[in-house]
Write a structure and sequence with these properties.
This protein is an alpha/beta fold. 47% of the residues lie in helices and 17% in strands. The chain has 35 helices and 33 strands.
């Protein structure tokens, strides 16, 4: 039996979204339960794959199947496709497996030509209606099927209205529409060198292939990447007999939600536009009216409308987004899908559906997209204000929130202006760890280079700062203190507003509103916490970050990066002094000056977290990052250290590395300079002992050795830690349990995990570096070429945002299995940026990790994602 690619709605019930797409599955289901819909058929997602594999052509056997399906619609409707009486017109719409509203293409009124339009006009006794449909079809076919801009045709329409003094399309007369159709067809012939196609079957095939093509258009590709929708899913195409909302004043069209998509209120939220087709509402061509307009015009139709909406929500057990049309007093629903909603609405609807007995708590937890929680936790711009403003540039939405301020081009400048009471946006070509004070001072961070997990993005998310990264349309000149966008140049007195949720950059100040966490948030998170088995910690090294993480439900700190503690002005001098010393004694003397600062930092972290675990990573970056680069700073340091600027520069040159990511950093620093590890261990253990003494709480520090690649290397550094820690604990007279483990961030360490695990209390996967080293490219430079990889379908997702399960993921899985074989008590987590990504969190749950650690503001996201992973895994076992 030949493979089937086309399914009539009546026969397709139960075949699923994978084959029919979301819209097709919905239409089949609506047909099954008796909802009034225009009948038709679905060309499956498998046909889309076939189309792309066949060189973007539809094979003859698929074309025949489509023709046969059209004949079925003719029998069902009693109409004739291309016929000179009672002509059948159809709509051709996309329908991907996952909802992608507005991303792909639609063609309406297909089947019209010079003969069928006259038959339609005669049989409806409405010439204006027939030619209104015809002019719409020509525009859509030219634009969608032929890929030609509709600009000139729209211009012809507007010129006609202007000439006649019309405000609305509905004022145009039948004769004027006829003349417009002639102009459209003449323009078509001028552009394409052929007449507008009269054969409706040719029209249908060209329209279907156009919808398949739209699966690969730029906006669809961007949307898929943002929402983790695989390219190989493809889209289905739905062909339905047309119903006409533009037939007369007893006709119209609209969009309805069974509950408010903004607030979640249990009340029909709908708009209605009389004498119109769907594109008028969706494209915003005309302003629709409140749904009460339908009630006022046709009360019985309105009653059926409300009854059907309630019936569909009860059937689907979720808020529905529906398109409907009224044709001469008869109501049709064109589609339904689970409606897009704000975070606030999602939480309320999920809780309300539980309270109404419609869904279980498990289903409620699954109903909320973890990613939308970000919008609840950060300040946001007032939507009314945004609607009035156009962005001047667009980058990557690296850290959610809203920030407004004047432009500052160096960290020092940002800090000084902030201390003087000014709000600033830190604008950099790219950021480095030394920019930390400027980032703290700024309302937001804007970078010309860098990706979603670049330094700016990672640190900004940890702080809860809004960040737009990789805004390549901006040319930043840090010396001149200018940012050039197009032909305009902006400086220190210009104000930018950054929307970290969209990546948009606006000129001028925009009003912000603070995050509001409702009681529904608490209910959903309570249910989530009851179901998840994966613990959630936070990446935090400042009291502010730690407290934020604790408030958001973090179960400890999974990564405290000690290097961020050395950049403050009262510390950086001693750090630089230590680096520039030639003798062990000199370095120890400088480290002794740093010890109280480090101890105080850890004391604050342990105090905030109490008996929750705090995992401290020893110094990781190469030492040259702490040294000054500017001549004036070098001269100032030389005076303080009683050295010559030349001596300082020589040491800087000596420490310079061509590839610092793979250079003298991490545990390699402790191998070369054990005194650094001893000082940091002393600070950690003494702080833990003091907090334990002051609070009576049991403090259990974890000390993490970064960048390990070998068991011998690990054991060497571990010995430095244990000898120092044990001596201090013994002298204190207290009992203190501590753990020493390592980051797995080098492929060799992943391969040798079984050996390293024998002496390690825990593993923490540093997936940022593990991804870099597995792929062989830098996350800060990859933005220069990754877009080419997305465009050519080599990559679908940013591997620094969502963990690469096929490559990096296999290393993680292997490490977990071999590590636990060697050490059954091994505790395993992840502290890279992937720890806050829902897709990655599900993978980490499935491979058996104990916890994930992420930025403080991603903690609720990870908690919810972990719960969803547990619920799905449990269901899969049944």
């Amino acid at each position: 039996m030949a493979k089937k690619y086309v399914y009539n709605f009546k026969e397709a019930h139960g075949l699923g979204k994978e084959l029919l797409g979301g819209k097709g599955a919905g239409l089949a289901e609506m047909t099954h339960i008796g909802i009034s819909i225009p009948q038709g058929f679905t060309v499956s997602t498998e046909a889309c794959t076939l189309y792309y594999n066949s060189g973007k052509n539809l094979p003859d056997y698929l074309v025949k199947e489509i023709y046969d399906a059209i004949h079925v619609i003719e029998k069902e409707t009693g109409k004739n496709f291309g016929g000179s009486h009672n002509p059948l017109l159809v709509s051709v719409r996309s329908g991907a497996r996952a909802s992608m509203p507005g991303m792909m293409d639609t063609i309406l009124n297909l089947g019209l030509n010079d003969n069928t339009v006259q038959a339609m006009a005669s049989e409806t006794n409405n010439e204006r209606f027939a030619y209104d449909c015809y002019r719409r079809f020509i525009v859509m076919f030219t634009n969608i099927a032929k890929g030609h801009p509709r600009t000139e045709m729209d211009k012809m329409l507007e010129e006609l209205k202007e000439r006649r003094g019309y405000k609305l399309d509905t004022e145009i007369t039948a004769d004027e529409l006829k003349e417009l159709v002639k102009k459209y067809k003449a323009y078509y012939k001028k552009v394409f060198g052929e007449d507008f196609p009269n054969d409706p079957y040719r029209q249908a095939i060209e329209a279907i292939t156009a919808v398949f093509r739209s699966w690969d258009n730029p906006r669809a590709n961007v949307y898929r990447k943002m929402n983790n929708i695989p390219y190989d899913w493809g889209t289905a195409v739905n062909v339905q007999s047309m119903v006409f909302g533009n037939k007369n004043e007893n006709s119209g069209t609209g969009v309805a939600f069974s509950r408010s998509p903004s607030t979640g209120e249990k009340k029909v939220f709908a708009e209605y536009l009389p004498n119109a087709q769907g594109e008028d509402v969706v494209a915003g061509l005309r302003t629709p009216l409140h749904i009460e307009e339908l009630n006022a015009r046709m009360p019985k139709v309105y009653e059926e409308f409300v009854s059907t909406i309630n019936r569909m929500e009860n059937h689907y057990h979720d808020m529905q987004d529906m398109e409907f049309t009224v044709e001469d007093g008869k109501l049709y629903f064109l589609q339904t899908r689970n409606g897009k909603r704000t975070a606030q609405a999602a939480l309320k609807i999920a809780c309300d559906l539980v309270d109404e007995g419609i869904i279980s708590e498990d289903e409620a937890v699954l109903r909320v997209d973890p990613n939308i929680l970000d919008t609840l936790l950060h300040p946001s711009f007032d939507k009314k204000e945004l609607a009035k403003t156009e962005p001047i540039a667009v980058g990557l939405p690296a850290s959610p929130g809203a920030g407004t301020g004047k432009l500052a081009f160096t960290a020092k400048e940002a800090k000084e202006r902030h201390e003087a009471g000014e709000k600033v946006i830190l604008v950099r070509a790219e950021t480095s760890p030394e920019d930390i004070e400027g980032m703290v001072a700024a309302e937001g961070i804007l970078t010309m280079r860098g990706g979603m997990t670049s330094h700016a993005a990672v640190v900004a998310r940890g702080m809860g700062k809004t960040c737009v990264a990789g805004a390549t349309g901006i040319i930043v000149d840090e010396e001149k203190k200018t940012a050039k966008i197009g032909k305009k140049v902006y400086g220190v007195n210009d104000i930018f507003s950054l929307d970290g949720s969209t990546g948009n950059v606006y000129l001028g100040a925009i009003k912000t509103v603070e995050a509001q966490l409702t009681g529904y948030f608490g209910r959903i998170m309570k249910w989530a916490d009851e179901r998840r088995t994966l613990h959630v910690r936070a990446n935090a090294e400042t009291p502010r970050d730690a407290q934020t993480a604790y408030n958001f439900g973090a179960e400890g700190i999974g990564l405290a990066r000690t290097e961020h503690m050395f950049f403050e002005k009262d510390r950086i001098f001693f750090m630089r002094k230590m680096i520039l010393e030639d003798s062990v004694e000199g370095r120890e003397e400088a480290l002794a000056e740093l010890l109280p600062y480090q101890r105080d930092d850890f004391y604050k972290l342990f105090s905030i977290m109490g008996e929750l675990n705090v995992n401290v990573r020893l110094l990781d970056p190469p030492l040259h990052e702490f040294l000054p680069q500017e001549d004036d700073q070098i001269e100032e340091l030389a005076k303080e250290l009683d050295k010559t600027p030349e001596e300082i520069k020589a040491r800087i040159d000596d420490l310079h590395e061509f590839n610092p990511m793979m250079g003298h950093r991490g545990c390699r620093l402790d191998v070369s300079y054990p005194e650094i590890g001893r000082m940091q261990t002393r600070a950690i253990i003494e702080a833990a002992l003091q907090v334990q003494k002051d609070t009576g709480k049991k403090i259990t520090p974890e000390i993490m050795i970064p960048l390990t690649l070998d068991s011998k290397e690990f054991e060497f550094v571990k010995k430095i830690i244990t000898e120092t820690a044990d001596e201090i604990i013994a002298a204190s007279g207290q009992k203190l349990v501590y753990y020493v483990g390592t980051m797995i961030e080098i492929p060799r360490a992943a391969l040798l995990a079984g050996e390293i695990a024998k002496g390690s209390a825990f593993f923490s996967f540093g997936t940022n570096d593990l991804t870099q080293m597995t792929y062989g490219f830098s996350r800060d430079d990859a933005g220069k070429f990754l877009n080419d990889y997305y465009a050519k379908k080599i990559f679908e997702q940013d591997p620094f945002r969502t963990v690469d399960q096929r490559g990096v993921g296999q290393l993680i899985k292997m490490s977990v299995e071999n590590g636990r074989k060697a050490n059954p008590d091994l505790h395993i987590g992840v502290c890279g940026e992937h720890g806050g990504d829902p897709v990655s969190v599900e993978f980490f749950h499935n491979v058996g990790l104990d916890y994930v650690s992420c930025s403080p503001f991603r903690v609720p996201v990870a908690r919810l994602a972990a719960a969803q992973a547990a619920i799905k895994a449990k269901a899969a076992k049944k």
